[in-house]
Prior knowledge:
Oligomer: single chain
CATH architecture: Beta Barrel
Shape: elongated
Helix content: under 10%
Number of domains: 1
Distance between the termini: 74 Å
Strand content: over 45%
CATH class: Mainly Beta
Structural class: mainly beta
Number of helices: 4
Strand order of the largest sheet: 1-4-5-7-8-9-10-14-15-18-19-20-21-22
Radius of gyration: 24 Å
Amino acid sequence: xxxxxxxxxxxxxxxxxxxxxxxxxxxxxxxxxxxxxxxxxxxxxxxxxxxxxxxxxxxxxxxxxxxxxxxxxxxxxxxxxxxxxxxxxxxxxxxxxxxxxxxxxxxxxxxxxxxxxxxxxxxxxxxxxxxxxxxxxxxxxxxxxxxxxxxxxxxxxxxxxxxxxxxxxxxxxxxxxxxxxxxxxxxxxxxxxxxxxxxxxxxxxxxxxxxxxxxxxxxxxxxxxxxxxxxxxxxxxxxxxxxxxxxxxxxxxxxxxxxxxxxxxxxxxxxxxxxxxxxxxxxxxxxxxxxxxxxxxxxxxxxxxxxxxxxxxxxxxxxxxxxxxxxxxxxxxxxxxxxxxxxxxxxxxxxxxxxxxxxxxxxxxxxxxxxxxxxxxxxxxxxxxxxxxxxxxxxxxxxxxxxxxxxxxxxxxxxxxxxxxxxxx
Length: 425
């Protein structure tokens, strides 16, 4: 009987973490808004614009277009609106969920001019992950109350001009990722408050960023970038607190109070193809087509090591995502340049498979921006982007302990406010 109970409780712990990847209000967990002028273009021209140091990250090959060393610093507050309204089908007790918050984001990019055909660069940003904090009294607390997967990236890069129409570039993204998830534990006894389950760890990951830039004639560019897969592995002993005596005894007898939890996942590979074209000396048009392999990220390896080791691959039923964007730049006068763009990203997960830790759907992006050439060496820019996901229905039921949580995330969106400074020297 003890062996049987141990197996049952081990699967309960595994099921608690099947929702782990990992808190996004996004088509995927990769962000396009990284403290650069692309924010005002909704990402359009990503791999082909190559007008400033941001190209270190968007397409390393584009660094050869810069005739001087170039430094860009972007500061970018982000407001995330995630508001869940439970409906009459919800059986779990608690309040509606509100994970809306302000977050600091941005990026720094530098290109060093070795000679006209060879450039070095470095990018520092956080392009992967987001977080959610619903609080510990909402209806879905037995699924998740707080979770985050966030990574800081440093990417050194090199670019070389092969001839007058072809350039190549390569960068290596070095990511430091932090994962944390907490969920309430139902002690069953109505006289006892909820217990708590927490797991956290950190890991390093690496991704190659390869780029091509083709400029068949002046004013027209084609860019192609490939971001390779990256592997993340988190390993921790789940921390239980506030457990009732009955549940504490069962978990203790099963060896699960000191069990180890291993989570293995793959950051997806992606492709981006972009076009840039000068329509005149004032107007430029640009666009993207992109793909990201989120189906691979949805296959999560889960291992619980206690008296016996239980391993499985959790299939989150994620889909690959597709991206399209169109943007414009207009030179109003010699110091002023305006930008606007719109983009679409398909959903990473269908609503029927959505869980409270991954609030995801189709995305529409709309961006507006302006740049002012303060001097020959300094350009000041600002931009705003709305990432709109809208209303998302969710219905999850993981049995009587967690309860059924059904309702709608209303007017889900992200708002980015960007200020960037560019120095040429």
